[in-house]
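Structure tokens please, single chain.
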Amino acid sequence: MVFLNNNQRLNADTYIALLHDKVFPWAQRRFGNTWTFIPDGAPAHTATKTQDFLKEAAPKFVDKHHWPPHSPDLMPLDYAVFRALKESMAGYVVINVPDLKDLVCAKWAALPETFVRTECAKFRGRLQACIDANGGFFEKKTKSHLTSSWHSRTSTLAQPSTSPMKQSTYL
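Here you go.
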């Protein structure tokens, strides 16, 4: 988990620094050169400077011309993991940023490996649903299918995972 400092804003420069200093070294240690980086459509991710950096630094990456600009319903972090974190923190009261960071990190660590694997396994199907929707939003079309399995898993989020996360192909 990486957090920006209080006075930082996410722009191309801070994003590249995070990728260079934190994300890519971790990915290299964990996956070698067998991973694909997929940024979303955020301005810091699609900036020319960032795209140029990704061409040089990532083993593979999906450039902004080959990814829908508004795609929160494609990536497991966006449609499932962040939702699970938010739901698992409901009811907590935090009074300062360090406590909030600690809570987010604790809930992140408590996500069951099976939950993350299941959501990541849906990735290719979600890509196909996006293609079938001509690159448009498709979440409402698939929501009943996705939420039925979603609700059955959210009750386990408070239980810590007993094994470390296994490799994933996409970052």
